Amino acid sequence: MNTASAPYPIGTPGAPWGDAERADWLSRQTRQRSYGTEVLSVIERLRPRFDVKEYGRLEYGPDSYPLMALRSRDWNDDLPVVLVTGGVHGYETSGVHGALQFLDQHAADYTGRVNLLVAPCVSPWAYERIHRWNPNAVDPNRSFRDDSPAEESAALMRLVEPVRDHALIHIDLHETTDTDETEFRPALAARDGKPFEPGGIPDGFYLVDDSENSQPEFQQAVIKAVEQVTHIAPADDSGEIFGSPVVARGVIQYPLSQLGLCASVTSAPYRTTTEVYPDSPRATPEQCNAAQAAAVCAAIDYALAHR
């Protein structure tokens, strides 16, 4: 899908946003769903089976959001650690609910085999507003670095620090949506005072490997499992997905640490970022959630078999 768009309604083309433009942007954001009803309530239902921890709290104006993580109840320091994150971009719904579905339906299969640490909704303010950024117009998924400008990212890094060098796997659950092209990329260009260059949205599931520590067989194991649930994104006419060269079926690469991406927060040998396409006429919300859960299972299964 290629989209041409009018100038973004906030700011002056070519000029980065200042405080006034950020305030204008923030004034336009409205709550569209409930983190408490849709996420915290599910975590409460899972509490009898997992250790639940509040690892931080976001204070945004009148709103206060507890940041929640779930851990294996039978945590054993001799077992490898699996980190699952979702909702780093709050609007990417199946990342949140796929992580919770994995815990509910599949986590028991790994009891005594791995330690699970799951942060299902890293950005609850953005979850409620179906947005990519936090209230400061900062993208948490470009902020996983020292002195992070995003408290969402800084809090997750503090949570993960004790297991950072013990993790076997980190799988970060995301979506690519039509609104990436119609709203979020145009907003990013406007915020940074750059021209918006329309692109294409891939129809299907794909993965982002780490170009600095690629694991091609691991990525393909995840792709093979997910294609039993939903379709895999093909390369475009340029051999790319979302502007990046396709290095294997359904796989592109980014330098995770260099870009400050969530999947760089551990030194796990097996790392990947999922990208589900929920706007496809060939996929339902249920399939999207199931695809995320299947990706987590496949990642664990491969890593345990190849330790």
UniProtKB/TrEMBL annotation:
CDD domains: M14_REP34-like. Keywords: Hydrolase, Metal-binding, Zinc. The keyword Cytoplasm does not apply. Transmembrane segments: none annotated. Residues 31-307 form the Peptidase M14 domain. InterPro entries: AstE_AspA_cat, Peptidase_M14. Signal peptide: none annotated. Its cofactor is Zn(2+). This is M14 family metallocarboxypeptidase. It comes from Marinobacter albus.
